[in-house]
Specification:
- By secondary structure, this protein is mainly β.
- The protein has a single domain, classed as Lipocalin, CATH 2.40.128.
- It contains one helix and eleven strands, in the order E-E-E-E-E-E-H-E-E-E-E-E.
- Strands 1-4-5-7-8-9-10-11 form an eight-stranded antiparallel β-barrel.
- A hairpin with a 6-residue loop joins strand 9 and strand 10.
- The longest helix is centred in the middle third of the chain and has 8 residues.
- The two termini are about 30 Å apart.
């Protein structure tokens, strides 16, 4: 229900210099998380455990690109039976659509920091525009491995029905909040 954005996540990658730079998503620290109202009683959360992608960013030119892939079968709801149900045809249909993707090449900046990205989320074979908010964009040297790293918190809200995911509407909400902590190492 919120993929991605997965990816979505991707626009948070810039580097210390102001020329075009390339980054690779750190799969150990980038997990798209989604929230959805369940039957009007509670907010349920899930995440995807496998995300990969590339980001380029030219902060001087205020441009860049994002190409993120989220493994649909890596959904994690905390219970094996629930994970299996979410991978099935009623929701992510991971057998037919093994990946969700987010691509973007339009960014908004505040100074030299990206604060938003406009792109395309492809889920269940349907490609639609999505706007991402980027907060806390920061770059520096990773304190343990000493590599250049950029990170941010990315968020968006989508309506799952727009991608054809309509099972249990309206009991299970249409609106899905997506939050993605993203870390990416400079190539």
């Amino acid at each position: 229900m919120k993929p991605l954005i997965a990816g979505l996540v991707a626009v948070l990658v810039a580097g210390p210099s102001l020329a075009a730079e390339s980054f690779t998503i750190d799969a150990r620290h980038t997990f798209p998380v989604f929230e959805i109202n369940h039957l009007g009683f509670s907010t349920q959360r899930g995440r995807f455990n496998k995300t990969e992608g590339k980001i380029t960013l030219d902060r001087a030119a205020k441009s860049g690109s994002v190409d993120i892939r989220i493994d649909s079968a890596s959904i994690d709801m905390g219970l094996d039976d629930w994970d299996k149900h979410m991978r099935g045809e009623d929701f992510f249909n991971a057998a037919q659509f093994p990946n969700m993707t987010f691509t973007a090449n339009a960014f908004a900046f505040d100074g030299d920091k990206p604060v938003a990205a406009e792109g395309t989320l492809t889920l269940l074979g349907v490609a639609k525009p999505v706007s991402l908010k980027i907060a806390g964009f920061t770059c520096g040297t990773h304190p343990i491995n000493k590599k250049a790293l950029c990170a941010a918190d990315i968020s968006t809200t989508i309506k799952r029905s727009e991608w054809g995911m309509k099972k249990y509407l309206p009991a299970v909400a249409d609106e899905v909040v997506i939050k993605i902590p993203v870390e990416a190492f400079k190539d």
